[in-house]
Amino acid sequence: MSTGVLPFVRGIDFSRNDFSGNRFPKEVAQCTQMTWLKLNRAQLERVPDELSRLSNLEHLQMVRNKLSNVHGELSDLPHLRSVIVRQNQIKTSGIPTDIFRMKDLTIIDFSHNSLRDVPSNLEYAKCAIVLNLSHNNIESVPTQVFSNLIDLIHLDLSNNKLDNLPPQMRRLINLQVLKLSNNPMTHFQLKSLPSFKFLRVLHLRNTNRTLNNMPPSYEEFENLTEIDLAMNDLPSVPDGVLKLKRLRKLDVSHNKITKMEFPEGSMELLETLNVSDNALTVLPDGIIRCLKLQKLYASYNKLTFEGLPSGIGKLIQLQVVYLSYNNLELIPEGISRCVKLQRLKLDNNKLITLPEGIYLLPDLKELDVHNNDDIVMPPKPLDKQKAMAFYNIDFSLQNQLKLAGQSPGSSSSSVPSSSAVQKDLIQRRKDFIRRRRYQADQDNASKVIQGMTKIAKVGRESIDEETFLGSRPAISWKDKMEKQKPRLDYSDVFDEDVGEGEGLWVWEIENFYPSLLDAAFHGHFYESDCYLLLKTTKEPSGNFSHAIYYWIGEKTTLDKGMCAAVHAVNLRNYLGASCRTVREEMNDESDEFLELFHEEIVYIEGARTQSGFYTVEKPTFQTRLYRASVSTTQVEMEPVPITVANKVRLFAVKLNKKDRKSKAEIESCNQMKTPPEFWIALTGSPNPPEEPIVEHVPLDFVPERKKLYQVQIGMGFIELPQVEYKNGILRQKMLQTKCVYILECTSDIFLWIGKRANRLLKMAGHKMVTELHKMLERPEYTQISRETEGEESTMFRSKFIGWDDIVPFDYTMTADTVQRRGADVKDRKSKAEIESCNQMKTPPEFWIALTGSPNPPEEPIVEHVPLDFVPERKKLYQVQIGMGFIELPQVEYKNGILRQKMLQTKCVYILECTSDIFLWIGKRANRLLKMAGHKMVTELHKMLERPEYTQISRETEGEESTMFRSKFIGWDDIVPFDYTMTADTVQRRGADVKVIMERDKMKTDLVSLFLDRLPPMCHEDADQMIEECNEDLEVIEPFVLEGKKFVRLPKNEFGIFYTTDCYVFLCRYYVINEEEEETSDQEDLDGGSENGDASVEKKSEGEKVDDFKCVVYFWQGRDANNMGWLHFTFSLQKKFENLFKDKLEVVRMYQQQENHKFLSHFKKKFVIRRGRRNLTLNLGGRWPELFQMRANGSAVCTRTIQVDARAEKLNSAFCYILRYPLPVPDENGTAGNIFVWLGSKSDPYFHPIADEVARELICRGDDDFHIEVIKEGDEPEMFWQGLGGKKAYDTNADFMNYTRLFRCTNDKGFFSVSEKTVDFCQDDLDDEDVMIVDTGEIVFLWMGSKASEVELKLAYKAAQVYVGHMQMKQPDRPRKLMASLKGHESKRFTRLFHGWSKHRVPAGD
């Protein structure tokens, strides 16, 4: 069906279609008003015949085709103004001679063809203004051509074989563009050049130009803006060229120029300069006066650093600089002041470094410095914008110090550091570049300021006018309402006599407007309608008073309710009444409203009038099969056909599902392989019939048009009119629920009865369908089927377009899920399941969706797509309309890549993908543009040859389908969000990270990084603390777990712990009575002897007041499991609770994490051995054992821990104890030796403690070991034998004065850093967090295996902040930042922890 729009089409761009053979659309001949046509890259082999019908065609393009001639149809186009047929295979004989006699022909382009001569009769194209014959094989130009074509403005004869040009060329006095490049031109002297006073562009590249055959003067060429003299072996630039004042582009590349000088006052407008491939050693100094220069090409010269002008920074408009293949060692610092620079190529030079400001150029996109072997790039300055990239948190040191409550200079000396000076320099550079950018954009800024000044001036005038008006007296609200009342004409809506007398008027809302009801229907209201009522009464004064009501039904549509309210106000304005409009709702009417009908109103179910809204019909979903291919990073989806047999199979599935309730089985068969069950069902016999099966349906068979009758009854009569419908298409909406219809299909007759049809109508329908069956001649097998609304059979529904109540669904879902949830036929809204399969393993559901059968097809699956298959280029058309015409130009895009930004919200586009056509409608497109788009997409579908399964999809802006979006690069409407948030947080706060960050700044706590390290406790204070902690200790009872019971620990083992055991210490503390202490203090102050007896009395009573407290310390070794704690809580703790009641306190501690109170009870004699106590006492002691004594932070935390007995474990800053048993006792009966090794840098305070620990705890009671105290450097040979030989070891432990441990976590809901105590151990490294460890020289970032990615990123930035802070605070000790992974720690890291061993594996891991 034709839409009738083609005669109004003014232009179509058919480029990039395949019109080879006879594929050119015949419908183009109907575009009789077409004025332009583009057929570029259309595979044309000849000019289409249909062009002869386009008598109004003015512009024709046939670029990049396979045309060998243009004979025929071009001669039939009398109004042709431009012929562009470049890049074909046209020969001189293939151009008709009569086309140049057309009086309107102005543009002639036969470039890139195979012309040997100038086309015949070209001299008759006297109106031509553009002539392009470039890239041919023309050897000469006839004299008469230039004699007649005196109006030429653009002449391009480049890339031919011209040796000379006729002297008549001087007649082209209007010439503006002359291109003669790549021609021999050996005899061309340019004598006619002075005649071209309007010349703007002159191209003489590779035309054998010398200083002798160039014009001596260029004073006549005031308008010359572009000159190309490349590839001419010129020794210098002609002097006249350098004096041109309006020149914008100069190309003198590929010559032999050794020197250039710009005269003062010239080249001020120059924008592009190309001097590549010459012999220049110095660029002209006058180049710095070319303030508008944007592109500078000077590669392949002999330029050095001295050859570049130092003032190059003045060229603030410079965007491109090419200096490749020169002898540059440095480039001027001023290049970093060219604020608009985008591309800088410095490859293949001898560069050593670059200016530091090169990184600060805001627009720099390309920097090429390859093949500069000795170059050292300058360090990149810290960029605040990069620091802000981590979750909107500013990790700059200045900001973090401010948040921590410190001034940025509080941690540093008054003398500014070098880093601060460097930062100031960088900031000054940034400020300078910002000012230069402002200077570069000054012209645009001045225009904006002028516009703002003009607007402000108008604003002041309006303010003055308002001030003048304000002096007038105020207008009353009634006058103001009357003034603002819209002056609308309601005569078309309401009659003239409405409200002119007493009475009641009732209107019903129909199709947005009120319709007056007859008085017989007053008081009858349909529940789905709305009504407007006017009651007019006459007052004693003779005036009329009005009461206006609008009644809203319960089930009314939105448009009816809105229109009732609007027209009630319109009626009041029409009558000029002062009453208010009253809203009345169904079942809640007011008494005044009911009195209008004497309190008798009737509600009727349903609606009497139609809604004004259009009913949106969802398109029926069709099963489609797509072939996916990958092109670069884009996935191409191309639909492929589904056979007719598959469609029939799908119809059988629907028939079974609806009529047979899915109880029947569906089996496919063909003529060659038919099962007996088929013949039994058809003939009653399992054998096929004897008669041969012949093809009795003609190829041109067209089903007879269906007839739909509506049964109507009246007073004693029945009528049977036909329902009119267009294009032979029946739709479900034609059937009304109150009616009865008869559908006649020749061999099938259906009687359809609506649910609300009355009994008489149903009876009439039954009678009429029987009579209709008898009246007309029909096949014997014709049947009458009775259909009830809502229960129609599949066969009846198949007669209507779009009627399919079987929801197309994903067959991986169950039927219950589909019925409950439905399935979106276009985009499934994440309700469908996705299942991947391959050819070897394809589920039955795939074949059911594709063919209707769970079994794969019998035909073999073959590879029919060639390996070099390339998807056809997509074409994007923009629909444009004007005064009575439509145009369809193509949107140009590079590299075949479509992007979402090409679609403008006010426009309509057609995206053609051969087997898919999409009509995209912008939200702000007007109604006419939408209509034109719908018509043009229909015509475009029919005009071009396409597969049968091609579909037209209509897309609305903001609701595009996935298949449409897949055609565009980078179109992804999934909002990126922070994955650290939960689903509840996203739902509550949204998923847009930028919005969340702006509204809810992320909180951080880095204060701990800026606090000073806790100073170590002196030995005197440590001894005093130990003494004070033991003052109130009355008794301490140790227990150790043996098997499943806790037993008392022998006294000689007090202070010895094993890493695999658990210990319990019961401590009884004396609690001083505060009242008694206060009383005794008061008595001491009184000092009276007379109170002596009383005090004795009080003391005797005080014995009853004294109290105690019991604390149970549970100590667990790092290799012990939790069974010890369970045994304690269920056995020993219960006994203690029964004994001490509420005076008991239980404290659980882990190895090397003990508190100071507990450690004080051992008085620095605290030994931790490896292994289990029972095994060591019975079987141990037969191998060397090495113990390290070390105190972290204070002497209270002194521990002696067993380490590997190897020499590299020694450190000159500590004391060690080596227990070395002899294999056989010596002649003195000594079983072994215990060496107390005192490091040369160890604290003498610990020397006697080490000796005591060795004698009391290391030496067993029954052992006969010799104890020897040795100093570093005086070790006997036996000492090194016990350590496996003498090896190198650490001689410095300065890290003890600087070591700090920080924990980075987000457990609190925000990122925070906290410092561990100075007495930290290996178990303080939390596997779920990130730790920062400072050694004074290195800052380690230790990453737990379970730490989140967010914590890793934020901890890294926090470590950088800490390093920067310490560099300011301790400039003499610079830190390096290094990473350390759990399980792969280096020795520099492990030595920071006392007694380092393998990491403990938590239970369950």
Automatic annotation (TrEMBL):
Low complexity bias spans: 404-422
PROSITE patterns according to UniProt: LRR (PS51450)
UniProt cross-references to InterPro entries, sorted A to Z: ADF-H/Gelsolin-like_dom_sf, Gelsolin-like_dom, Leu-rich_rpt, Leu-rich_rpt_typical-subtyp, LRR_dom_sf, Villin/Gelsolin
Pfam families (UniProt xref): Gelsolin (PF00626), LRR_8 (PF13855)
Name of the protein this chain belongs to: Gelsolin-like domain-containing protein
Keywords of this entry: Leucine-rich repeat, Repeat
Domain of life: Eukaryota
Biased composition range(s): Acidic residues: 1078-1087
MF annotations from Gene Ontology: actin filament binding; phosphatidylinositol-4,5-bisphosphate binding
Keyword Repeat appears in the UniProt entry: yes
Region of interest (Disordered), residue spans: 404-423, 1078-1100
Domain Gelsolin-like: 520-594, 730-797, 898-965, 1202-1280, 1313-1374
GO BP terms in the entry: actin filament severing; actin polymerization or depolymerization; barbed-end actin filament capping; myofibril assembly
Listed GO CC annotations: actin cytoskeleton; cytoplasm; nucleus
